[in-house]
């Protein structure tokens, strides 16, 4: 019941500021009713506008000031409300944070996903890091886990953060490129800062182009510290693992989606929540006893490093579910303010130099962006626990403080607010700190290549191919040859074959020998090849039809896919409906040329000669199938639908026939129907292939682009 009341408390806070425009009259900001808002007050119909028209002045003035500065990084984002609930109380031995240890406690959350480099007007599907920031409205105060979809970072010390961001942002003379990292200033920074190499391997991998926010991992990046009720500390790294698995787009898709739907990831999140397909992630932790701090071949305080899961397993803690979209993008998603220093009892910091700088920077940023020190009272930011401080006044103060005493200690207000002495008090972790004042990096931070090599070694063959292609694309945009050469030189410390492949693609001399031997270690957990592949829930499937299609077969396909959790959409050459082969019509969800294969996960072409002939005569429909096949997606057809696949260039594969009613050749699933009904094996094969996301062993070299 207490957990329910906490969720209700957050909802009540938001209800207090929601305004429903129905059954109300238009007024000014002072509550004065208005009966005309289309024409300003003038002296005569064609005369000058009069300054006394307070409504016009107020309306325009507010409009002139209704934009706030966008975030310098993570400007383009999408958010949602939900809840987090622990599985059990086992973590109470390590932390006093109740939201992590009480299985009866459902903590309200707000999560914001984002890209990093681009402005608010950039595209969703660019190659970039993705932000994954979670605000927990806990009973002990607000806790912000401000992370990314990659577990490492570009730099080791926060003093370099302005340099990195200046380098990755659009170049100052041209303002180009927007929402992209393929330009000289970034790669110049990279080639002069070898500590970036591990993160650049992640950025050049498919992790930088996620299929959706719902299929994206999240990481706290830093090593934090859990503190239990007795004051004992344990190092911790936080992991979010999507229940749908970790899946990505392919590079050609991302560029085409950007033209078809620049809001692809944001719309995907919104629509799935609206449809009741609530995204879920499991929170896991890697725990390291303080006695083991120096047992690794890297420094736990180095944010450019990870702890391989094979060395320290990720232990599941609880589940995050997002189940409600915001009511107003600006008021909630845009004004939500995260801060790495927003911690609760049981969670504390380490001496990670990047984390220490973030603890300063986030608050400083919000003071400017949100107009002063009272941004924490905005509904989306406000804690559900009691707030009682001596802080007063300032821009946007909306509380009416009645206490006479605004200082501590005092006797005029009964000594209140008084010092707390219960278990919810935050007490900083006590550790002995000593040393000379010095600007110098620890020697334990000096290995910049071993984990980059670990990442490379852990990739499947198709992931390695994509990384090489990404480096070639990015460096191919770099105008200065010496920058390309510098990056290749660093890659030669990561892996010689990788460096040679990249060099040959970007027109620089390949290194003749390896600068450093490959240590041969790998971490299978880093590869998306080993992600969850047991569900097709929320997968988008295009069902292509035209006049003459078998309506029974279409309904069977839709029902079978829906029963398995997928989302079939019937596409045709026109909107409305198409004529069925026997009688009646088949309802169409969208016209084929208003969409594209890149926004679907698979394609099915039902049989029936007339329908297939009509589709085969349409170039866009043929290209739709060709493109899906080229992007390694499952492609299915029945009966005469096979002819459509052949027309699309899907040749040389094994098709079903009288001796075998269902065939699956490298993700091309075909079937022979029996009395107008497709065999169950067809749908089992299709679902199994679709759950695998892509068919990476398919040879598409013969298929035209």
UniProtKB/TrEMBL annotation:
Its EC number is 1.11.1.6. Its cofactor is heme. Residues 27-416 form the Catalase core domain. Heme binds at residues 71, 112, 161, 358, 362, 369. It comes from Halosaccharopolyspora lacisalsi. Decomposes hydrogen peroxide into water and oxygen; serves to protect cells from the toxic effects of hydrogen peroxide. This is Catalase. PANTHER family: CATALASE, CATALASE-B. PROSITE patterns: CATALASE_1, CATALASE_2, CATALASE_3. The active site is at residues 74, 148. Residues 1-46, 510-531 are annotated as: Disordered. SMART domains: Catalase.
């Amino acid at each position: 019941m207490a957990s329910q009341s906490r969720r209700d408390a957050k909802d009540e806070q938001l209800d207090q500021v929601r305004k429903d425009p129905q059954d109300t009259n238009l007024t000014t900001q002072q509550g004065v009713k208005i009966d005309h808002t289309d024409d300003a007050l003038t002296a005569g119909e064609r005369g000058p506008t009069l300054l006394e028209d307070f409504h016009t002045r107020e309306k325009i003035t507010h409009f002139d000031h209704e934009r706030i500065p966008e975030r310098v990084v993570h400007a383009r984002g999408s958010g949602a409300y939900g809840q987090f609930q622990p599985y059990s109380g086992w973590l109470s031995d390590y932390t006093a944070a109740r939201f992590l240890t009480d299985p009866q406690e459902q903590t309200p959350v707000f999560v914001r996903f984002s890209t990093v480099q681009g402005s608010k007007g950039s595209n969703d599907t660019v190659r970039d890091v993705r932000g994954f920031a979670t605000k927990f409205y806990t009973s002990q105060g607000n806790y912000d886990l401000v992370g990314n979809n990659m577990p490492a970072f570009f730099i080791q010390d926060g003093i370099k953060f302005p340099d990195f961001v200046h380098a990755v942002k659009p170049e100052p003379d041209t303002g180009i490129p927007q929402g992209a990292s393929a330009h000289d200033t970034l790669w110049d920074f990279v080639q002069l800062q070898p500590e970036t190499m591990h993160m650049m391997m992640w950025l050049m991998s498919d992790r930088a182009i996620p299929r959706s926010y719902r299929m994206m991992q999240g990481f706290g990046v830093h090593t934090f510290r859990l503190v239990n009720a007795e004051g004992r500390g344990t190092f911790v790294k936080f992991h979010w693992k999507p229940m749908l698995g970790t899946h990505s787009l392919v590079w050609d898709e991302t560029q085409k989606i950007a033209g078809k739907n620049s809001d692809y990831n944001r719309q995907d999140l919104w629509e799935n929540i609206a449809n009741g397909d609530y995204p879920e992630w499991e929170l896991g932790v890697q725990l390291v006893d303080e006695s083991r701090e120096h047992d690794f071949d890297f420094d736990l305080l180095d944010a450019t490093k990870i702890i391989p899961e094979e060395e320290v397993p990720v232990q599941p803690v609880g589940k995050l579910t997002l189940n409600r979209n915001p009511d107003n993008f600006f008021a909630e998603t845009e004004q939500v303010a995260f801060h790495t220093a927003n911690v609760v009892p049981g969670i504390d910091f380490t001496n990670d130099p990047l984390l220490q700088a973030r603890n300063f920077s986030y608050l400083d940023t919000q003071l400017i962006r949100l107009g002063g020190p009272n941004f924490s009272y905005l509904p989306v930011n406000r804690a559900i626990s009691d707030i009682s401080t001596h802080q007063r006044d300032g821009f946007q103060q909306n509380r009416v403080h009645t206490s006479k005493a605004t200082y501590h200690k005092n006797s005029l207000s009964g000594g209140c607010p008084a010092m707390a002495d219960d278990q919810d008090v935050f007490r900083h972790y006590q550790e002995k700190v000593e040393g000379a004042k010095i600007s110098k990096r620890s020697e334990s931070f000096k290995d910049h290549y071993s984990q980059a090599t670990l990442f490379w070694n852990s990739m499947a063959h198709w992931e390695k191919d994509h990384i090489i292609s990404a480096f070639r694309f990015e460096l191919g945009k770099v105008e200065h040859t010496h920058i390309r050469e510098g990056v290749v030189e660093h890659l030669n410390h990561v892996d010689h074959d990788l460096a040679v492949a990249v060099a040959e693609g970007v027109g620089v001399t390949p290194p003749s020998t390896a600068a450093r031997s490959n240590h041969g270690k790998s971490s299978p957990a880093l590869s998306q090849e080993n992600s969850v592949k047991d569900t097709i829930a929320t997968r988008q499937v295009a069902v292509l039809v035209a006049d003459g299609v078998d309506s029974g077969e279409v309904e069977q396909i839709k029902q079978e896919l829906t029963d398995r959790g997928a989302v079939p959409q019937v596409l045709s050459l026109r909107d409305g409906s198409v004529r069925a082969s026997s009688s009646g019509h088949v309802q169409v969800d969208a016209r084929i040329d208003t969409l594209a294969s890149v926004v679907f996960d698979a394609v099915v072409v039902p049989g029936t000669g007339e329908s297939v002939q009509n589709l085969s005569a349409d170039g866009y429909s043929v290209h739709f199938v060709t493109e899906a096949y080229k992007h390694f997606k499952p492609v299915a057809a029945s009966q005469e639908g096979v002819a459509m696949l052949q027309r699309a260039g899907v040749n040389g594969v094994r098709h079903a026939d009288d001796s075998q009613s269902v065939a699956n050749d490298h993700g091309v699933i075909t079937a022979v129907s029996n009395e107008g009904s497709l065999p169950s094996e067809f749908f089992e094969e299709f679902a199994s292939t679709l759950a695998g996301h892509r068919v990476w062993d398919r040879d598409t070299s013969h298929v035209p682009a």
